[in-house]
Amino acid sequence: MDGKGRALDNAFVERFWRSLKYEEVYRREYANYRDAQIHIQAYMQLYNYRRPHSALDGSTPAEIHHAHQKRAA
Q: What CA–CA distances, in Å, run from 63 to 1, 5, 35, 53?
């Protein structure tokens, strides 16, 4: 971790991987690679665009990301 805020970024990524594993991967038996790819992509869309997060005050990660991009521009 050599950049400012990197440790906090890592915590968010670790939380995402944990959520993906426990809410999608471990609950489903995939028939093949393509089936896994389709379901994991759908979960990622849900996680980032439709599911509100309490740590983000009820916003989605996509809403926070887009708000930060607008402020930076």
A: 26, 20, 28, 11
